[in-house]
Amino acid sequence: MPVTINLSIKQLETFRTVMRSGSVSEAARSLCRTQPAVSAMLVSLENELNFQLFERDKGRLTPKPEAYFLLEETDAILERLTRTSQLMAEVSNLSRGHLRIAAMPAASLYFMPYVIAGFVKDRPDVNVSMMMRSSMIVHDWIAAQQYDIGYAEMPKERDSIHVEPVIIKGVCAIHKDLPLAQKSWITPEDLDGVALAALFSQHPNSEALRLLFEERGVRYYPRFELQNYISGFELVERKLCCSVCDPMSAASYSINKSRQENVVFRPFKPDIIFEHAIITPAHKPLSGVARCFIESIRSGLNEFMPPGCFVE
């Protein structure tokens, strides 16, 4: 049956100080303890180990070979403990950690890197892993507790995830040289029979837009069906279509094109609502760094998105 040895940090610290100072009296002064207290600590250590570490002759201690072996191990243990204490202090101060983020394409290309860049600027020891996947995969990854934070379209209710809604209003992408670009906002009547770049027909936002056009008695013409709106902006640039899209994709396009921007964005009325969400695992406590990063996402949304795009 294996022997259980219970060593204390105080025993190891006392032993190391005695070995380094060369005497009990010097160790006592260094540790601000009495000599009897230091001697008693060494005896308790030897009793726990069940062998002697020192030869004792007229009050003098001579380390045995076992003492030098234990000193190497003690140095490693106490140095590891010191490093661990420092690391945990940094984690507590939100200056160290590892974030695992999963995000849908509209958020991954520019928005999430924008937030990450601001967050890690003064945190050199925070590492980030970010994966871009469809919203459904992001939902599943967060539900499986594989990632700390997700940003995606609003998921269906499920017990394994916590959802913080981000509700935003759609905008219309138009080539800057078209007459529609002169309008303050765009309506379904303005897009009667106009070629559009839209998400695939089964997507809830495409279905909502189709129904709105039908209610208004105007023709809905999704000439291009795509997986994401950002892909459609190239088609808008070529004057092949317009696009009723989410403002996050619109902001990403504006950052990408900078001064060469040929597509302008106008509010679309009545509102077409896009339901996004910040998603976290329901059964896994968030680290302090992850909680702080979610605050950065919230503030980043207000900085990144066009004014007036949020549903109050």
From TrEMBL:
Record-stated family: Belongs to the LysR transcriptional regulatory family.
Gene Ontology molecular function: DNA-binding transcription factor activity; sequence-specific DNA binding
Entry-linked Gene3D superfamilies: 3.40.190.290, Winged helix-like DNA-binding domain superfamily/Winged helix DNA-binding domain
HTH lysR-type domain span: 7-64
BP-aspect Gene Ontology terms: positive regulation of gene expression
Protein name, as recorded: HTH-type transcriptional activator CmpR
Keywords assigned: DNA-binding, Transcription, Transcription regulation
